[in-house]
Amino acid sequence: MWPILILMFRNVFLYLLLILLIGGGACVTVDEQGNPIDETPRGHYWDIKKLPEGPFWSPEEKSIPFMVAGLPSEVPEEFVLEGVPEAGNQGKFAAGTPFAAGYLMMTMLERKAGSEDYTCSPEFLYNSLNGGKNVGLEIIEVLQLLKEVGCPDRKTFSASDPFIKPGPEVIAAAHPHRIKGFARVDLSRPTHIMALLLEGRPIVVTLQVSQNFLNLESMQWIRPEGMPVGRQTVAMIGFDRKAETWIFQNSAGDDWGHNGQFSLNRDWFARLATQGYVAW
Predict the structure, then answer these.
(1) Entry pTM
(2) What CATH number does residue 166 fall under?
(3) How many other CB atoms are found less than 10 A from the CB of residue 216?
(4) 68 vs 250: CA distance, rounded Å
(5) What are 195-240's pLDDT values in tens digits?
């Protein structure tokens, strides 16, 4: 009897050991095609220590000078630009750059210059540059269009179809509304950023973003979580020195974030920002 029991226990032990060695005790979730699904906690994907500090300029961008500005003797603890248009909504199209550089920044520039009823058409900028595809645009190419061609009033061109090209009359209507120039912003120097904002200049910035950015429901984007989902261009419109955050306006409508705006800690900004520009 005892030899039989010993043999049984030995067989069970060897079976359990075999399971552990080959990983048979692990539960693997698969999709409908039988492919393993990565169940790594999405919130653990981003590690600030592993992200290089930006910005990341292309060779073409490196030839563009930086805008230099000095801080005044007194700097407020909190500051937000006045006259910022209400948050626009780019919808399902990759038009964040035309909204930040055109709808927000260009509109503010022209209104300060006397065109109080003017609103730059982000649709004109996007449709002129997207090549008939739903693709994102770089800040530099939108600014070059604003300098060379301009941006018509949104009442002149607001096509909901992003593939309708502006005609000659619309292009002619854009010419009176052009920027004189643009420059890079040294995003690694908070004093320069604050100085430019205090001069009344919105800063167009491209950020690397994650899944939890897409459905932000509060003012503070504490940190990126989830898988990376590409880049989004937004407009920096203020700062909070005590909280060490920058304040932005996105183009996902006023139901996103806090009335379309959000804040981001300086440390994360230094890792996520890829480009930044101002215009005049």
Answers:
(1) 0.84
(2) 3.90.70.10
(3) 18
(4) 25
(5) 999 999 999 999 999 999 999 999 999 999 999 999 999 999 999 9
